[in-house]
Amino acid sequence: MLIFLSFYGKNMKVLHWKKLVSCVGWTTAEELYSCSDDHQIVKWNLLTGETSQIVKLPDDIYPIDLHWFPKSLGIKKQTQAEIFVLTSSDGKFHLISKLGRVEKSVEAHSGAVLAGRWNYEGTALVTVGEDGQIKIWSKTGMLRSTLAHQGTPVYSVAWGPDSEKVLYTAGKQLIIKPLQPNAKILQWKAHDGIILKVDWNSVNDLILSAGEDCKYKVWDSYGRPLYSSQPHEHPITSVAWAPDGELFAVGSFHTLRLCDKTGWSYALEKPNTGSIFNIAWSVDGTQIAGACGNGHVVFAHVVEQRWEWKNFQVTLTKRRTMQVRNVLNDAVDLLEFRDRVIKASLNYAHLVVSTSLQCYVFSTKNWNTPLIFDLKEGTVSLILQAERHFLLVDGGGIYLYSYEGRFLSSPKFPGMRTDILNAQTVSLSNDTIAIKDKADEKIIFLFEASTGKPMGDGKFLSHKNEVLEIALDQKGLTNDRKIAFIDKNRDLYITSVKRFGKEEQIIKLGTMVHTLAWSDTCNILCGLQDTRFTVWYYPNTVYVDRDILPKTLYERDASEFSKNPHIVSFVGNQVTIRRADGSLVHISISPYPAILHEYVSSSKWEDAVRLCRFVKEQTMWACLAAMAVANQDMTTAEIAYAAIGEIDKVQYINSIKNLPSKESKMAHILMFSGNIQEAEIVLLQAGLVYQAIQININLYNWERALELAVKYKTHVDTVLAYRQKFLETFGKQETNKRYLQYAEGLQIDWEKIKAKIEMEITKEQERSSGSQPTKSTGLKH
User: Fold this and answer.
1) What is the DSSP letter of 79?
2) Which domain CATH number covers 91?
3) CA 724: distance to chain centroid?
4) Which residues span the domain enclosing 259?
5) DSSP states of 403-433 as a string?
6) I need a labelling partner for 2 at 20 to 30 A (CA). Which of 375, 580, 677, 693 fits?
7) pLDDT for 259-277, tens place per residue?
């Protein structure tokens, strides 16, 4: 995606002030208010190109900062902001209505009030001033608390995403202070000069800072540096995040720059503006307005965004025009839209475009006749696609549609905030929607795509640490659906999304993983680990045979991707990675594992073996071994394990094949995969109580073996005999009270026990051969 800023306003009636413009703020995507040092508040209408003076402030009020009251969260129709806070040089802040009436003026600071910001819910206002104080006010302008007091002026302030913390400047330092008293304060030196502006994005939780050292920097919420720019010629006077957190804008003297969230620059413009003191993004994230030192207001529009999928490249050339290029035959199509384009996504042979009022769905086979439907709310903040359907996120909710435009579902959960969702915190597959909770970041909510209802028994997925990024696999059956996620320790985990009663295992796949992606054609997972690019050809191996997981991986050195690379897409066998400098690197992985996945999903085991023999790679054989065990094809498993030299497992598989009943075989396959409890349940349900006791004896689960023998009133002496033999081997005495209780007065007769065991085996053989189809094994079920 290459992005440029297109400036407009040539045909707009521009008011030229003699004095500088200090602040700007959008009410809707087409209407902006600006304030200047000649005490005027002016409204700009971008549709008609007209400007009008709203109010002339008293001569002693020099405006410094402006912030509109936030729109209500979770409402269907977008309402316009009706009131804004204006801070001024006279130590007051003013609550001013849309019509220009000053509703209230409040004495706030001694000296100028340098910044004022509403929190995300609109329940509180923070102001900072030359007097070094940070104050929290109620919505109506009543003082709640003085959060901090310091000796130097505070130039800028921003709320944390949850409105529980405040970020402010203190000379060259940045400080994050929670609202709760006695909570830990985070403080760090951020610049070599005074910090002039900060911004904190609620979607990506990243912080921007700009200073007189002529640099802008990106930080995470723990104060760790993620990016530092080269020094510019002049101090950086303004920075601002786009609402979705994907881009940010930087303003300086005669300079406007558009950057990616990781810091690298998409576009640099040199408008004749003087210093740009304030930058505001429109609600939909498509436009920027800048308050300029030479008395102008600069408007810019984000264009040249680019989306790629296989042989198609789509470019937003103008606000309402897209160009589609097929690189195979160089065919070009132009797509015209009635309204400006806000978001788009190209994947799974479909282009989904949201404008300010409608959604367009194009098939890559036919660009001429899109499917069009009206949106419930104009500002779509996220589009996610799966093979069968796509997801739209806006201020009102989450909506799932089929590619035919049919509304499918709208999942909801308590405390849902759609304004902070992004591609890392929401994931979509053909049958599942996964959403990371913001209130408790250890929780992932799982929903059925078709109904929007919680998956399985309604339980959410809970992890021991905060989760950073989630991703659902895209292929296979609903019952086998897996979710991979990275937690705050950068560990990668995988678990099943199907949750009925028993707690599903959450298994670690890797450490120091920074970014991940599933293939769109089969369930292959790739990720960037510390210094390696890793591909898990069959991640489900961890459920089958964890020992051979390292043999199913492909690894290569990742130092060529430099620091903080990010996986953009994984289409077919092509992985696209964006480096920290913005350049794209394409990696091709072996096509054979994907073919193996295809053969196995179609149960073509002979073809799968033939493919492995042709490729002659250990990773392929290891994947086939795990796939065969997972699908209980032990003949193929035996061949595959032999090929990777796992002789002990080949012998065990041979012993499984010789077992008399299918229940025993099934139980031992489950044991092979480490599912002891499930193996025991299978045997007990089949009435094979002795076999269930025996597997616990073999695994030295002495407590459970005795518990089963007592419960089913059989083979208590067998368990005691094996226990005694075990203790004698190690020269130990019995100390377990339960064993001592049942061993009292009991003589161990090995001849008798062996006869009983042989009788059990004979019974099982007769039962499996069908000679006694209805008769019980003589054991209590």
Assistant:
1) P
2) 2.130.10.10
3) 54
4) 22-72+81-302
5) TTS-EEE----TT--GGG--TTTEEE-SSEE
6) 375
7) 999 999 999 999 998 999 9
